[in-house]
Amino acid sequence: MQLRHEPALLVLSRQALPTLDRTKYATASGAAKGAYVLADAGGTPDVLLLASGSEVSLCVAAYEQMKGDGTNARVVSMPSWELFEQQSQAYRDLVIPPSVTARVAVEQASTFGWSQYTGRDGTVIGMKTFGASAPLKELQRKFGFSPEQIVAAAKAQVARSQGLAGGI
């Protein structure tokens, strides 16, 4: 909330979301830069999982599953695209390395804008329709908002990027 000449907004959820163990995952201090690496398996990631808000916990659960099978994933929490864009190119490239083209963004609202960060070939798991009504867990399952579906999209992205790197 360091902004002095721009509006600021806090968006809070009524969902029962897990509390992230900040001794296991990065501190939230990176939120001041608009985006930061929340979880990283180390080295160059095979795939980036990008999200903001309640979707971050879904990406963390997917990350944990992939860590168990040897996929080197990175979770990037992006609470503010605007603040992120104000950072140096070096910082932005550190968080979202241009060389890592396997990318999955998760947004339970509109997919609008996420392609800026996933690139042309990345995947955005998000809503493209309106009007569904059901309990939250049922809707999440129907529209692909589960760690398992994020893992499947991430593995498809890794396979695609390895195919491109291999000249396929």
How would you sum up this structure, described in words?
The structure is a single chain. This protein is an alpha/beta fold and 168 residues long. The protein has helices at 55-68, 81-85, 89-95, 115-118, 136-143, 147-165; strands at 36-40, 47-51, 73-77, 103-110, 123-127. The chain has a single domain (28-163), classed as Rossmann fold. Helices cover 34% and strands 17% of the residues. Strands 1-3-2-4-5 form a 5-stranded mixed sheet. Helix 1 (55-68) links the parallel strand 2 (47-51) and strand 3 (73-77). Helix 1 crosses helix 6.
Radius of gyration over all CA atoms, rounded = 16 Å
Mean pLDDT figure: 90
Helical proportion, percent range: 25-40%
Number of domains: 1
CATH architecture: 3-Layer(aba) Sandwich
The helix tally amounts to 6
Uncertain ranges: none
Shape: globular
CATH class term: Alpha Beta
CATH topology: Rossmann fold
- Portion of residues in beta strands equals 15-25%
Structural class: alpha/beta
Sequence of secondary-structure elements: EEHEHHEHEHH
Number of DSSP E strands? 5
C-alpha termini separation:
47 Å
Specify the biggest β-sheet: 5 strands, mixed
Strand order of the largest sheet: 1-3-2-4-5
Outline the fold blueprint.
Layout: E1 36-40, E2 47-51, H1 55-68, E3 73-77, H2 81-85, H3 89-95, E4 103-110, H4 115-118, E5 123-127, H5 136-143, H6 147-165
Parallel strand pairs: 2-3, 2-4, 4-5
Antiparallel strand pairs: 1-3
Helix pairs in contact: 1-6
